[in-house]
Structure to design on (154 residues):
């Protein structure tokens, strides 16, 4: 009789552990959409980038959950961003959590101007003095986020 009670108790404990203790929290209970830290480094100091539009997808059982937002364009966002002071031809390092695939675009007041070459997660700002608007498009397996920063070449 005691063996039967112990066996039932053990089955109940194992069942509860499997149901609650072994769930994949990274998928089921993780923040969705996730927040990713994003900054640019200039002269050893980090400057946060402004988050723009984003898209995230995750599977929940047989369903797929998608979150997509629209946001002001980088040139519109630049109107309220504090420019980061840089020197002519200086390197700026892009630092975004979880190593996404990165594409960087230069914007002007009319729209996207051109893609900027990224080497070792760094871009080189122009030699000419002026204010430059950059969009960093970060892409992970399940989503993407657009970030904007403004550099002012002194």
């Amino acid at each position: 009789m005691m063996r039967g009670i112990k066996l039932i108790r053990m089955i109940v404990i194992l069942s509860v552990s499997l149901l609650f203790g072994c769930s994949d929290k990274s998928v089921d209970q993780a923040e969705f959409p996730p927040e990713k830290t994003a900054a640019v480094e200039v002269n050893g100091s980090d400057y946060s980038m402004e988050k723009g539009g984003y898209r995230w997808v995750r599977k929940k059982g047989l369903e797929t959950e998608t979150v997509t937002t629209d946001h002001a364009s980088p040139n519109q966002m630049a109107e309220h961003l504090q420019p980061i002071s840089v020197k002519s031809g200086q390197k700026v390092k892009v630092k975004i959590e979880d190593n996404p695939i990165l594409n960087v675009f230069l914007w002007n007041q009319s729209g996207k101007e051109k893609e900027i070459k990224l080497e070792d997660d760094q871009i080189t700002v122009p030699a000419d003095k002026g204010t430059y608007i950059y969009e960093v498009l970060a892409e992970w397996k399940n989503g993407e986020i657009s970030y904007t920063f403004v550099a002012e070449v002194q």
In short: The longest strand covers residues 50-60.
